[in-house]
Write a structure and sequence with these properties.
The complex is a heterodimer of chains A (106) and B (116). Chain A has no helices and eleven strands. Chain A has 106 residues and is an all-beta fold. In chain A, strands 2, 4, 5, 9, 10 and 11 form a six-stranded mixed sheet that branches. In chain A, strands 1-3-8-7-6 form a five-stranded antiparallel sheet, with no helix packed on it. The model of chain A has no long low-confidence stretch (mean pLDDT 95). Chain B has 116 residues and is mainly beta. Chain B is built from no helices and eleven strands. In chain B, the strands form two sheets. In chain B, strands 2, 4, 5, 6, 9, 10 and 11 form a seven-stranded mixed sheet that branches. Chain B has a four-stranded antiparallel sheet with strand order 1-3-8-7, with no helix packed on it. The chains are: A mainly beta (106), B mainly beta (116). At the A-B interface, strand 4, strand 5, strand 9 and strand 10 of A face strand 4, strand 5, strand 9 and strand 10 of B.
Protein backbone atom coordinates (compact mmCIF):
# COMPACT_ATOMS: atom_id res chain seq x y z
CA UNK A 1 0.00 0.00 0.00
CA UNK A 2 0.88 3.62 -0.26
CA UNK A 3 3.36 5.01 2.28
CA UNK A 4 3.06 8.53 3.68
CA UNK A 5 5.98 10.01 5.57
CA UNK A 6 6.06 13.37 7.28
CA UNK A 7 9.01 15.41 8.44
CA UNK A 8 10.16 16.54 10.84
CA UNK A 9 8.53 14.24 13.40
CA UNK A 10 8.91 16.89 16.11
CA UNK A 11 9.30 20.63 15.92
CA UNK A 12 9.80 23.16 18.70
CA UNK A 13 9.42 26.85 17.90
CA UNK A 14 9.31 30.14 19.67
CA UNK A 15 6.26 32.27 19.07
CA UNK A 16 6.63 34.33 15.92
CA UNK A 17 8.84 31.87 14.06
CA UNK A 18 8.02 30.39 10.66
CA UNK A 19 8.09 26.69 9.79
CA UNK A 20 7.69 24.27 6.92
CA UNK A 21 6.24 20.79 7.33
CA UNK A 22 6.70 18.19 4.61
CA UNK A 23 4.61 15.25 3.46
CA UNK A 24 6.06 12.67 1.06
CA UNK A 25 3.99 9.91 -0.48
CA UNK A 26 5.11 6.84 -2.34
CA UNK A 27 2.64 6.67 -5.20
CA UNK A 28 0.24 8.77 -7.23
CA UNK A 29 -2.77 9.95 -5.25
CA UNK A 30 -6.12 11.43 -6.12
CA UNK A 31 -6.21 13.94 -3.31
CA UNK A 32 -4.39 15.25 -0.29
CA UNK A 33 -5.59 16.92 2.88
CA UNK A 34 -3.82 18.61 5.79
CA UNK A 35 -5.22 18.43 9.32
CA UNK A 36 -4.39 19.85 12.73
CA UNK A 37 -5.19 17.58 15.66
CA UNK A 38 -5.81 19.61 18.78
CA UNK A 39 -4.99 18.41 22.33
CA UNK A 40 -8.52 16.99 22.67
CA UNK A 41 -8.07 14.83 19.60
CA UNK A 42 -10.30 16.75 17.24
CA UNK A 43 -9.07 16.87 13.65
CA UNK A 44 -9.40 20.30 12.11
CA UNK A 45 -9.44 20.50 8.33
CA UNK A 46 -6.74 22.89 7.12
CA UNK A 47 -6.45 22.32 3.39
CA UNK A 48 -7.92 20.12 0.72
CA UNK A 49 -5.15 20.39 -1.84
CA UNK A 50 -4.65 17.73 -4.52
CA UNK A 51 -2.35 20.11 -6.39
CA UNK A 52 -1.24 23.72 -6.50
CA UNK A 53 -1.05 26.27 -3.71
CA UNK A 54 -3.63 27.55 -1.26
CA UNK A 55 -3.47 30.10 1.53
CA UNK A 56 -5.59 30.67 4.58
CA UNK A 57 -4.36 33.41 6.89
CA UNK A 58 -0.98 32.48 8.35
CA UNK A 59 -1.12 29.03 6.80
CA UNK A 60 -0.44 28.01 3.25
CA UNK A 61 0.08 24.70 1.48
CA UNK A 62 1.59 23.53 -1.76
CA UNK A 63 1.22 20.12 -3.36
CA UNK A 64 3.41 18.98 -6.23
CA UNK A 65 1.62 15.81 -7.21
CA UNK A 66 4.06 14.87 -9.96
CA UNK A 67 6.90 14.83 -7.43
CA UNK A 68 4.78 13.24 -4.70
CA UNK A 69 5.10 15.76 -1.92
CA UNK A 70 3.21 18.50 -0.17
CA UNK A 71 4.37 21.31 2.08
CA UNK A 72 2.53 23.14 4.85
CA UNK A 73 3.84 26.58 5.79
CA UNK A 74 3.09 28.18 9.12
CA UNK A 75 4.09 31.81 9.46
CA UNK A 76 4.31 33.90 12.63
CA UNK A 77 3.52 30.86 14.76
CA UNK A 78 1.37 31.20 17.87
CA UNK A 79 1.04 29.00 20.94
CA UNK A 80 -2.39 27.94 19.70
CA UNK A 81 -0.71 26.35 16.67
CA UNK A 82 0.66 23.63 18.95
CA UNK A 83 -0.55 20.12 18.28
CA UNK A 84 -0.02 17.42 15.71
CA UNK A 85 -0.22 18.08 11.99
CA UNK A 86 -1.18 15.26 9.67
CA UNK A 87 -1.34 14.98 5.94
CA UNK A 88 -3.61 12.32 4.49
CA UNK A 89 -3.64 11.05 0.94
CA UNK A 90 -6.34 9.31 -0.98
CA UNK A 91 -6.10 6.51 -3.48
CA UNK A 92 -9.24 4.48 -2.83
CA UNK A 93 -9.18 5.32 0.88
CA UNK A 94 -7.76 8.06 3.07
CA UNK A 95 -4.34 7.13 4.47
CA UNK A 96 -2.69 9.26 7.14
CA UNK A 97 0.93 10.26 7.35
CA UNK A 98 3.16 9.79 10.36
CA UNK A 99 2.49 13.28 11.70
CA UNK A 100 4.54 16.26 12.91
CA UNK A 101 4.21 17.23 16.56
CA UNK A 102 4.58 21.01 16.89
CA UNK A 103 5.17 22.85 20.13
CA UNK A 104 5.17 26.62 20.12
CA UNK A 105 6.49 28.37 23.22
CA UNK A 106 5.86 32.01 24.19
CA UNK B 1 -17.15 22.95 6.51
CA UNK B 2 -19.45 20.02 6.99
CA UNK B 3 -20.20 18.74 10.49
CA UNK B 4 -19.68 15.19 11.68
CA UNK B 5 -20.82 14.33 15.19
CA UNK B 6 -19.50 11.34 17.09
CA UNK B 7 -20.99 10.00 20.30
CA UNK B 8 -20.03 9.31 23.01
CA UNK B 9 -16.88 11.40 23.45
CA UNK B 10 -15.59 9.00 26.04
CA UNK B 11 -16.72 5.72 27.54
CA UNK B 12 -15.48 3.37 30.24
CA UNK B 13 -16.70 -0.21 30.13
CA UNK B 14 -15.99 -3.50 31.82
CA UNK B 15 -14.14 -6.33 30.08
CA UNK B 16 -16.47 -8.57 28.18
CA UNK B 17 -19.12 -5.98 27.49
CA UNK B 18 -19.90 -4.36 24.15
CA UNK B 19 -19.77 -0.69 23.30
CA UNK B 20 -21.47 1.14 20.43
CA UNK B 21 -20.09 4.34 18.95
CA UNK B 22 -22.21 6.49 16.64
CA UNK B 23 -21.04 8.71 13.83
CA UNK B 24 -23.50 11.12 12.23
CA UNK B 25 -23.17 13.55 9.37
CA UNK B 26 -25.33 16.49 10.46
CA UNK B 27 -25.60 18.66 7.38
CA UNK B 28 -24.82 16.37 4.47
CA UNK B 29 -25.44 12.85 3.27
CA UNK B 30 -22.40 10.64 3.66
CA UNK B 31 -22.08 7.99 1.02
CA UNK B 32 -18.93 6.70 2.64
CA UNK B 33 -17.69 6.70 6.22
CA UNK B 34 -14.34 5.62 7.57
CA UNK B 35 -13.40 4.36 11.00
CA UNK B 36 -9.93 4.95 12.42
CA UNK B 37 -8.12 3.93 15.56
CA UNK B 38 -5.37 5.98 17.17
CA UNK B 39 -2.99 4.90 19.92
CA UNK B 40 -1.20 7.52 22.04
CA UNK B 41 1.35 9.54 20.09
CA UNK B 42 0.70 7.57 16.91
CA UNK B 43 -1.00 8.28 13.64
CA UNK B 44 -4.52 7.30 12.67
CA UNK B 45 -4.86 3.75 11.41
CA UNK B 46 -7.74 2.97 9.08
CA UNK B 47 -9.88 0.13 10.40
CA UNK B 48 -12.66 -0.08 7.84
CA UNK B 49 -14.58 1.70 5.13
CA UNK B 50 -18.37 1.60 5.14
CA UNK B 51 -20.73 2.49 2.33
CA UNK B 52 -24.40 3.05 2.96
CA UNK B 53 -26.42 -0.11 2.53
CA UNK B 54 -23.51 -2.47 1.99
CA UNK B 55 -21.07 -4.43 4.09
CA UNK B 56 -18.02 -2.68 5.44
CA UNK B 57 -14.59 -3.31 3.97
CA UNK B 58 -12.08 -4.05 6.70
CA UNK B 59 -8.37 -3.42 6.58
CA UNK B 60 -5.98 -6.31 6.94
CA UNK B 61 -5.59 -7.38 10.54
CA UNK B 62 -8.87 -5.86 11.76
CA UNK B 63 -11.28 -8.47 13.14
CA UNK B 64 -14.65 -7.89 11.53
CA UNK B 65 -16.45 -9.99 14.14
CA UNK B 66 -14.99 -7.89 16.92
CA UNK B 67 -15.51 -4.48 15.33
CA UNK B 68 -19.01 -4.52 13.87
CA UNK B 69 -19.76 -1.67 11.50
CA UNK B 70 -23.22 -0.74 10.31
CA UNK B 71 -23.98 2.06 7.84
CA UNK B 72 -27.74 1.85 7.74
CA UNK B 73 -28.46 5.33 6.45
CA UNK B 74 -26.75 8.17 4.62
CA UNK B 75 -26.25 10.05 7.88
CA UNK B 76 -25.36 7.36 10.40
CA UNK B 77 -22.67 4.74 10.82
CA UNK B 78 -22.04 2.78 14.00
CA UNK B 79 -19.03 0.90 15.30
CA UNK B 80 -19.66 -1.74 17.95
CA UNK B 81 -16.71 -3.10 19.86
CA UNK B 82 -17.87 -6.53 20.96
CA UNK B 83 -16.59 -8.36 24.03
CA UNK B 84 -14.20 -5.52 24.75
CA UNK B 85 -10.85 -6.18 26.39
CA UNK B 86 -8.28 -3.77 27.86
CA UNK B 87 -6.20 -3.96 24.67
CA UNK B 88 -9.16 -2.45 22.79
CA UNK B 89 -8.73 0.74 24.79
CA UNK B 90 -7.94 3.44 22.28
CA UNK B 91 -9.16 6.61 20.57
CA UNK B 92 -11.65 5.84 17.79
CA UNK B 93 -12.43 8.46 15.13
CA UNK B 94 -14.90 8.42 12.27
CA UNK B 95 -14.91 10.46 9.09
CA UNK B 96 -17.39 11.00 6.33
CA UNK B 97 -17.36 12.19 2.75
CA UNK B 98 -20.31 13.59 0.89
CA UNK B 99 -19.69 12.49 -2.63
CA UNK B 100 -17.62 9.63 -3.87
CA UNK B 101 -13.88 9.56 -3.45
CA UNK B 102 -12.06 12.74 -4.53
CA UNK B 103 -14.07 14.81 -2.09
CA UNK B 104 -13.05 16.34 1.20
CA UNK B 105 -13.32 14.20 4.33
CA UNK B 106 -14.63 15.58 7.65
CA UNK B 107 -14.03 14.04 11.05
CA UNK B 108 -15.96 13.46 14.22
CA UNK B 109 -14.66 14.51 17.62
CA UNK B 110 -13.46 11.02 18.44
CA UNK B 111 -14.35 8.55 21.19
CA UNK B 112 -11.92 7.63 23.92
CA UNK B 113 -12.64 4.05 24.98
CA UNK B 114 -11.24 2.65 28.19
CA UNK B 115 -11.86 -0.99 29.01
CA UNK B 116 -11.29 -1.96 32.64
Amino acid sequence: GIQVEQSPPDLILQEGANSTLRCNFSDSVNNLQWFHQNPWGQLINLFYIPSGTKQNGRLSATTVATERYSLLYISSSQTTDSGVYFCAVEDDKLIFGTGTRLQVFP
Amino acid sequence: GAVVSQHPSWVICKSGTSVKIECRSLDFQATTMFWYRQFPKQSLMLMATSNEGSKATYEQGVEKDKFLINHASLTLSTLTVTSAHPEDSSFYICSAIAGGMNTEAFFGQGTRLTVV
